[in-house]
Amino acid sequence: MFDLDRWDEIFETIRKNKLRTFLTGLSVASGIFILVVLLGIGEGMRNGISREFEEDASNLIYVWPGVTSKEYKGLNPGRRIQMKNEDYNQILLLYGDKLDKTAATFQNWGMVLNYGKESGSYDVRGTFPAYQVLESISLTAGRFLDLNDLNNSEKNMVIGHRIKLDLFKDEDPIGKIVQVSGVNFKVVGVYTDKGGEREETRAVIPMTTAQRAFGGSNNVDRLYLTLDPEEDFDKAVAASTQFSAELDEFLKSRHTVAPDDNSAIHINNSLENAKRFYTLMDMIKYFFWGVGICTIIAGVVGVSNIMLIIVKERTREIGVRKALGAQPLSIIGMILHESIFVTAIAGFLGLIFSLTLLEFIGPMIETQYIYNPTVNFTVAINTVVILVIAGAIAGFFPAWRAARIKPIIALRDE
Amino acid sequence: MGANSLHVLKGINFSVAEGELLSIMGSSGSGKSTLLNILGMLDEADEGSYVLDGVPIKNLSEKQAAKYRNKFLGFIFQSFNLIGYKSALDNVALPLYYQGLSRGERIDRAMSYLEKVGLANWAGHLPNELSGGQKQRVAIARALASDPKVLLADEPTGALDTKTSYEVMDLIQEINDEGRTILVVTHEHDIAQMTKRIVNLKDGLIIEDTVVSQVRAMENV
Fold first, then answer.
1. Would you give the DSSP letter of residue A170?
2. Where are the domains of chain A?
3. Segments forming the whole domain that contains residue B138
4. Which residues of chain B are within 8 Å of residue A411 when distances are taken between CB atoms?
5. Which residues pair with B22 in a beta bridge?
6. Buried b (16+ CB within 10 A) or exposed e, A277-287
7. Distance in Å, alpha carbon of B124 to nearest chain A alpha carbon
8. How do residues B150-172 score in pLDDT, each as one tens digit?
């Protein structure tokens, strides 16, 4: 490998066969290029998905009731399930030690909000202070609801940024009074939500106030729950999957729903979804690796093919070398060395080119599902190892054939 | 290669002493090339023995054959067989590369052999920049480079005109004068007459083995 004369020989043959070497290298370089870009996109998709999950608390369990679809214990299907405060309280009683943050909501869709001459139709939600964390919303002005608001059924309101824009324009909304169905509410805060504008067309008021003011008696529409954190992702997924199942069973038995009726109680487990997505991403990654490796194999076959032609072209030369005392091993070394060298250099160029592309074009990609595509160092090292192995494989058969050339046949005058 | 084997040589018995200049003659198909290939360890005889400088040449591995070829033999071919992308100097240095000599030493030695064949000024030229006679002289320098026991020349003048042929033969005679053993395969009588002994082959047998009075090539130029 460190034989200077061998290098000399290789550079000489490459210099004499520029086009051939270039074409050979091109197939390998494009193989590596495709592999690295695919892996970069795979990583970008993973980043994109991760970002999607940032919207809500990442271990959120979200419960909403539906309509029964099965007859059970004498009750007809088609029955709408309505949760009550008691459901929420029972859950806190039963699972309180496992739960981290909890909130319930009582929702009123299409309520008309009036401020001065401006008005609009928005959702008004009654909820608890923990809602802020569970929905991952951040305040741009004022404060969120607190326990005092809840305990005293204060007519305070936190509005989404969209509502602020619609009703208040440039005015500061904090402390202003908004009318909802004739009830006056004081705006105490404005929030934004990474989930998008639709999530910002909501107004949030204390649960107790909502139930009293809008005829909710003790109805509950949604539950937001998170579990205490676990050491690692897999444990967290296992715990939350188990909890979801228990919760499902508990709510079904409370509301006399058939255990296999999946339309009556819906439980959305973010962690489970995340895991499903991550598994999918892993599958995509393996698929990309597969595609990339196949491309490299195509490149290797190309190199091998060209090296075979080279050997054929150089039959006479190899014969002469053998007559002059070249040992089979030195012939194998010569061909193998050239093949590895060409593959490695071409591969490196492909690698550098693709990394540059990812580096400069990557940050410009701003779609929902691809974010900051990159390839890490380990992957780059792996591809380099693959390259050297590929070069060795590509060169081996031609080298073997070259070593078996009989000088007597090679030197025969045509 | 085929299923039918063909016996080309049918019993050849001769020995060559050190310092001889010998020509092997015969029409095509007489077996002279096969004989040369066996002597050159490029081919192996089915039967019989071949002793070179006291070493029996039999059942050689490829590796050993390569070693012996490098150490004992120098080849000169009708079509020169120079490596096209290497300069004259590098061509001459090639056998020394396979002997494992350092680069400096290879260049020194190769240069001295190029001087010997009178082509020192052409050292950096590629073979296709040389005339036929020059190419053959480079080939002779290459054959000499590894300081072999025997030079094997297969129709060394076959691709050259008469004048150039004689110049090449003159060089061969000079080298022989220094005591090196040389075997020349040829079918030209005038070339054969320039050696010291002629072995005539026909249908795989020696029909004549005579010592001749050498004609000096220079006299005919």
1. T
2. 4-52+276-410, 60-266
3. 21-220
4. 42, 77, 81
5. B183, B197
6. bbeebeebbee
7. 14
8. 999 998 998 899 999 999 999 99
Asked if the structure places residue B4 within a domain, the reply is: no
Q: What's the domain count of chain B?
A: 1
A323 interfaces chain B, CB cutoff of 8 Å: yes
At B107, which CATH number?
A: 3.40.50.300
Q: B103 vs A327: CB contact, 8 Å cut-off?
A: no
Residue B76 within any structural domain of the chain: yes
Token duo for residue B40: 């050159």
- Rg (alpha carbons) of chain A, rounded to whole number: 34
To which residue do tokens 């290939």 refer? B37
Nearest CB to A326; choose among B85, B98, B142: B98
Q: Does A326 touch chain B (CB under 8 A)?
A: yes
Which pLDDT score, from 0 to 100, does residue A57 have? 56
Q: How confident is the model at residue A1 (pLDDT cuts 50, 70, 90)?
A: very low
Residues B104, B110, B114, B115, Cα dihedral to 10°: 50
Q: Looking at CA atoms only, how far is residue A283 from chain B in angstroms?
A: 51
Would you say residue B8 lies in a domain? no
**Which of A80-84, A369-373, B116-120 has the least mean pLDDT?**
A369-373
Q: Residue B40: its chain A contacts at CB < 8 A? A: 323
Pick out chain B residues at pLDDT < 70: 1-5, 221
Q: Which residue of B has its CA nearest to A328?
A: B63
Q: Could you tell me if A307 and A393 are in contact, meaning their C-beta atoms sit under 8 angstroms apart?
A: no
Please say whether the beta carbons of B57 and B68 come within 8 A.
yes
Contacts of B43 in chain A (CB under 8 A): 408
Tokens 């080939």 belong to which residue?
B139
Q: Do B99 and A325 touch (CB under 8 A)?
A: yes
Query: Residue A325 and residue B85: Cβ atoms within 8 Å?
Result: no
Which ipTM was obtained for this model? 0.89
SS3 category, A114: strand
What's the pTM value of the predicted model, to 2 decimals? 0.65
Instruction: Tell me the mean pLDDT in the region A191-204.
Output: 88
Chains A, B: CB contacts within 8 A come to 64
Q: Are B206 and B9 in contact (CB under 8 A)?
A: no
Taking alpha carbons only, the member of B62, B37, B8 closest to residue B183 is B37
CB–CB contact B99 A322 (8 Å): no
Q: Is B130 helix (H, G, I), strand (E, B) or coil?
A: coil
Q: Which residues of B touch A (CB under 8 A)?
A: 37, 40, 42-43, 62-63, 66-67, 69-71, 75, 77-79, 81-86, 94-95, 97-99, 103, 142, 146
